[in-house]
Amino acid sequence: MQITRAMEMVARAKINKVQKGLKFVRLYERAMQRALTRAYFGDTNHPKTGGEKDILLVVSSDMGLAGAFNAEIMKAAEREVEKSDIVHIVTVGIKAESYFKKSGLPITAFSHFYDTPDLDEAAIIVDDIVDVMEDKKASGLKMVFSLFKNPLAQMPKTVRLLPVEDLQKPDNDLFDFEPEVEVLYKDVLNSWLVAKVLQGLYETKVGELFSRQTAMKNATENAKSMIEQLTLVRNKLRQSNITQEIIEVVNGAEALNG
How much is the pTM? Predict the structure, then answer.
């Protein structure tokens, strides 16, 4: 109970810092989405990627003791592997790496890669993914992560990052681009991918901490309940032994008195 209470307190202490960062990461991702939309519709010659081969990015945690948090992410990722033409898996976190090592698919693993996600780490992951896509001649990229909704709800989610789709043309599409939009689009696309991966890392990390806090709180309460039950059993046994000893003393005294 002391161990689970300590782990609950550690998770609670980390939550404030990471959750505060998540707010700004979401704002950054939306800003990059707007920039990508403008560049996308401004570049009439950007490549129209297509094809059947996909790369799957799976974001999990390095630690367990978080209830069914990682199991739900693995189920969602497994569904994507079954229904899509996945040729390579990129994993973030030991849990995803351990799960997909036996899948038979080649994997690139990032384990113990971060405590609090930052932009540089997300950029490293994106650079590796781009290299893998070029090597495998893949045109699609999907990401499975845990979407943080509230402290009690962390839902696994799958999003398609490449090819870019579902963009709506802005009402005011008159923009001047510097440098040329054909050059700018590639840089904006890469920056947007980094922002999306960073958001996935943050969403998953916050969900992990809340899940661990809840799991450790429940474990602490269960341990407390078990202690109470065992204490009651001990007291009943102790009382029974005392009663038995008293009966033996009384019977012995009566036997001596004849």
Answer: 0.85
Q: Where are the domains of the chain?
A: 7-215
What is the pLDDT tens value at each position of the chain, 258 positions in all? 999 999 999 999 899 889 889 999 999 999 999 989 888 887 666 655 555 789 999 999 999 899 999 999 999 999 999 998 999 999 999 999 999 998 889 999 999 888 889 999 999 999 999 999 999 989 899 999 999 998 888 899 999 999 987 788 777 666 777 888 888 888 999 999 999 999 999 999 999 999 999 999 999 999 999 999 999 999 999 999 999 999 988 888 888 886
Closest CA to 36 of 181, 147, 233, 249: 181
* CATH architecture of the domain with range 7-215: 3-Layer(aba) Sandwich (3.40)
CB of 61 closer than 8 Å to CB of 174: no
